[in-house]
Structures are given as structure tokens and as C-alpha cells.
Amino acid sequence: MEKRQRFLPVSFLFFFFITLAVWFACPQIGAADDHRTTARARRDAREHHRHNGHVKLFVFGDSYVDTGNFEPNNGSWLPPFGRTFPGVPSGRFSDGRVLTDYIADFLGIRTPIAYQQIRVGNISEQLKSGVNFACGGTGIVSAISKGPILGDQIGQLGQMIRHRFYNQTDLNNSIAIVAASGNDYLYATLQVFLLIIIISNLVTRTNLI
């Protein structure tokens, strides 16, 4: 009994330190696995695009993915937007990159040009990575800005296809992003709020009369 009491603390400390070492090592192992998985997925995506042509990224939605379609000299075109990337306001509702930029980087392509930023000359190079039709403040059926709603954005792509800026091969090698972040709900809420104000004013005037 005396020997067991003498060696019990030593055994306990031994297993304690082993457990502690494993506990600290597991996050590092997991992080390394995540990094390898991400790197492998990136390589697979780029290898696929190398064999199947240059991938096109078509983006639809709102400010979460907009990279320059919002009305000029307003909103996302003013500081502090763009402070960390690209250094000046660029039409992104962020001080840096938005989801579109990260997905394009993952695919190994340049961020697709914003529809409103397409200019005459060297069109094929401008459209090489696809087009971003998303516009801040827009929704699926309504908008709180002057931008096109989702159906109109899709119509813009359809128009480009009809004018043969993209062919079937391009579409087969394309990826679409659709972001819907709640502007429809916000628009409806604003309409209800406005209606309440109007009714309140009418009731107030009626009581005064």
C-alpha cells in the first residue's frame, strides 16, 4: 500500500503532461490539415480550369458582392471604403475586399469587372474573368437604391449573351454567385414605417379639425 501511494502522484503527473501535450498539438494538427485541404482544393480548381478553359465568374446580388456598380460619387465610392484595399474607394461596401474578390482569388482568376465599369476597347480582355452585375441596396423583388434588382441583373447577362460576348463554352466553364442579404425585408420595413407616419399625420390632422 505504501508503494502504491508513493508512485500514484508520479503516474498522475505523467498522464497529465501527456494529455496536455496532446491537447496543445491537436489544434496545430487540425490547422495544418485545413491548410493542406484548402491548398489541395485550390490546386484542383486551377487544374480543372487549365484543362477546361478560363473560368468565368458571374456575380449577382447586393452590397455583399458588389465591386463597383453602385451609383457614382455616392455610398461605396466615398471614404472610408477601400482604405485597406485597393487603397481608395472602389465601389465596394467594405474597407477592403468583398466575397467576390476572395472567390476569384480562390479560383486563380482576376476579380470580374463590374458591369458599370465596362469601357469601349479591348472588350475580350475586360470580360475574360466574367462580369459582376451585383449592386448595393438591391434585392430579389425590390431595392432601396437605384440599382437593378436580381431579375434585371440576370437580364443584363442575357443581353450580353445575345450580343455574343459569351458563348456556350464560356457558360459551361462558368460559376455564378448570388447574394441576397435582406434588402427586400428592409425595403418592406421602410414602406410600412412610411405608411405608419402618413396615417399618424392624417389622424393628428383629423383630431385637430
UniProtKB/TrEMBL annotation:
<keyword id="KW-0378">Hydrolase</keyword>
<keyword id="KW-0472">Membrane</keyword>
<keyword id="KW-0442">Lipid degradation</keyword>
<comment type="similarity">
    <text>Belongs to the 'GDSL' lipolytic enzyme family.</text>
</comment>
<keyword id="KW-0443">Lipid metabolism</keyword>
<feature type="transmembrane region" description="Helical">
    <location>
        <begin position="185"/>
        <end position="204"/>
    </location>
</feature>
<protein>
    <recommendedName>
        <fullName>GDSL esterase/lipase</fullName>
    </recommendedName>
</protein>
<dbReference type="InterPro" id="IPR036514">
    <property type="entry name" value="SGNH_hydro_sf"/>
</dbReference>
<keyword id="KW-1133">Transmembrane helix</keyword>
<feature type="signal peptide">
    <location>
        <begin position="1"/>
        <end position="32"/>
    </location>
</feature>
<dbReference type="GO" id="GO:0016788">
    <property type="term" value="F:hydrolase activity, acting on ester bonds"/>
</dbReference>
<dbReference type="Pfam" id="PF00657">
    <property type="entry name" value="Lipase_GDSL"/>
</dbReference>
<dbReference type="InterPro" id="IPR001087">
    <property type="entry name" value="GDSL"/>
</dbReference>
<keyword id="KW-0732">Signal</keyword>
<keyword id="KW-0812">Transmembrane</keyword>
<dbReference type="GO" id="GO:0016042">
    <property type="term" value="P:lipid catabolic process"/>
</dbReference>
